[in-house]
Amino acid sequence: MLQAIPGVGPDRATQLLETFGSVRACFAADEDTLASIPGIGPTTARRIIETVEETQSLYGADSFLS
């Protein structure tokens, strides 16, 4: 799921999962927290936030991470 986000490949997805422990926790993080992770930075952090917001808007928060 993380690798579907532009700018998040296998290495960054692994880094995010190692940092947060789950996709749910990663998607609950704020932009500053995401940007502070080595290898993520502000541009990728913004893309993650935008993807989460767009997907939640389309499918609803509950179905998004079920």
Explain what this protein looks like in three dimensions.
The chain is mainly α and 66 residues long. The protein has one domain (2-56): DNA polymerase, domain 1 (Orthogonal Bundle), CATH 1.10.150. The chain contains 5 helices and no strands. It has helices at residues 10-20, 23-28, 31-35, 41-59, 61-64.
Order of helices and strands: HHHHH
Helix-strand makeup class:
mainly alpha
Total individual domains: 1
Measured on Cα atoms, how large is the radius of gyration? 11 Å
Average pLDDT level:
88
Global shape: globular
Percentage of residues in helical conformation = 55-70%
Query: In the CATH hierarchy, what is the architecture at level 2?
Result: Orthogonal Bundle
How is the secondary structure organized here?
Elements (H helix, E strand, L loop, with lengths): L9 H11 L2 H6 L2 H5 L5 H19 L1 H4 L2
